[in-house]
Amino acid sequence: MNKKQHPKILIVDDMPANIKVLAQILGNDCEIYSGRNGYEAISMAEAKQPDLIILDITMPEMNGFEACKKLKDNPVTRAIPIIFITDLNMEEDEAKGLELGAVDYITRPIRPSVVKARVRNHLELKRYRDYLQEISMKDGLTGIPNRRRLDEYLHQEWRRAQRQTKPISLLMLDIDHFKLYNDNYGHTAGDDCLKKIALAIEESLTRPADLAARFGGEEFACVLPETDQEGAELIAQRVHKSLARLAIPHAYSPIGSFITISIGVTTTVPDQSSSMDQFIKSADEMLYEAKKSGRNQTKSQTV
Q1: Which helix (DSSP H) or strand (DSSP E) does residue 286 occupy?
Q2: Would the CA dihedral through 130, 132, 137, 142 be positive or negative?
Q3: Between 20 and 30 A from 180 (CA), which of 83, 156, 272, 300?
Q4: Residue 214 forms beta bridges with which residues?
């Protein structure tokens, strides 16, 4: 198996020798990352998005229980399963760990066969949960991410932009006069049209971090992390050109012979006082301006 396909495991322990032992047990089948304290556990989990965290309880500054609580309170890391590992063998400690959201509890001395089996089982459960999650985050008609996934991803990237003081852009897109298209060509043709446009929008995004999603009805949205207004406008231009190449006939459109789209763009570098709801509203306002100005165009602003 290619190492890139191996599950990722984050081992967090203030004793390097303990990390080394676990890495030797699991390293042949997993991609191993390590941290030395609770703070590193949180930052590494956010950055690497491991499939599983093995977390020591007795660490200085921030112990494993505190780190677990912060990981579970963070929407970016809450779904990552955590196995506690410790020298403690007290029933109340085990109960506390499980109540905080850990999926398992291993005590030292380490038994390699037990560790391997438990890790394998929890990774398999994680793969199944990820599969169900992926299905729940896709739009049933177009196959691109749905509104739920959009909201989750925007929240994640908004927080990242705040931490790193980086720009983030949002595109709101609406198919022009789509009701007239549905009324005259029928809903089956309308569904096919939505599928083609969703694919065209998605293919206009060139970076893995960019996300296109169906916002609802004939509306779509794109989240563009680390993208300024100029970069977001370039993406919008690509979408317009992609639709022009598709040349989907729309004889009933008041503005042309083919399907077109209106786009609103907003860009910001959010700080702790910034409002994500206002950010979305700003993109929606730009979309309204694009429609009011004649449709089949983009309006943008930096806020």
Answers
A1: helix 276-292
A2: positive
A3: 300
A4: 220
